[in-house]
Amino acid sequence: MVTIQTSGGIGSGVVYRSDGTIVTDAHVVEDEQKKPFKSVRIHFADGSQAPATVVGVDDPTDVAVVKADRGNLPAAKFSTTLPEVGQLAVVLGSPLGLEQTVTAGIVSALHRNMPPSEGSPQGLIDLIQTDAPISPGNSGGAVVNSNSEVIGLSEAYLPPSSGAVSIGFVTPAATVIDVADQILKSGVAAHAVLGIIPTDISPEVASRFGLPTTSGALVIEVAREGPAAKAGLQPGDIITQFDGQKIASVTDLLAAIRKKEPGQQSDVGFQRGQDTKSTKVTLGSTTKG
């Protein structure tokens, strides 16, 4: 476990390869405009420090890779399978700058989704929930099991002011490995995209625009010549099905798309006015245009 210092604050990271490659959360190494810092500083467990460059970031999963100017590091072992609910979860990191802090709890749930927000406009999908305390500064640090295997990276927590008690979220190790390896290979990670900007349908929106339902994902913009446009989707359509799965919200739609690969074809069911329609969409890629 390492501490990552930037001009914006402090976060945590995990040694991915012995050559100085480190994985962390993208928001740890980005500024408020979501632009990666050119360089950061790494604090190691032995008290030494080294400069590092940001190799790449992936905002859809909030995973980043940095390369420290130091080799012969002990790389962490990542678990390739999801943990089970109730298993031990040990959080390592630098909460509030307190380096090498350890907290513990259990895996509370799997496959949690966080809806889009200002800091994460695409939402965060398929997270692990834990009751192990996670605080500012823990982001990007390891969460390990009883075998000292990394099951994921600390991602976020619900603050006590929200009424929550010990609710934290972790990016699964499988996601971290997949994204990190893509970044190391090509500098970016590819994700499937539909080519729309959707929004949830509040009762106020439904009333204002005369929409027949508050369930589904309302299409407010369609990318020109994008996958959705080519399939005939239009602003004002309400997506209600995706490959047979009911879509009740934007988060449902994002989660369904995230499970797909660029180039795959999916069936999209939608409402247009009082008509129920369906179309086949060949999904695009975040790495193209």
Automatic annotation (TrEMBL):
CDD domains: cpPDZ_Deg_HtrA-like. InterPro entries: Chloro_Bact_Ser_Proteases, PDZ, PDZ_sf, Peptidase_S1_PA, Peptidase_S1C. The keyword Disulfide bond does not apply. Residues 279-289 have a biased composition (Polar residues). Residues 262-289 are annotated as: Disordered. Residues 198-274 form the PDZ domain. Coiled coil: none annotated. GO terms for molecular function: serine-type endopeptidase activity. GO terms for biological process: proteolysis. It comes from the Bacteria. This is Signal protein PDZ. It comes from Arthrobacter globiformis.
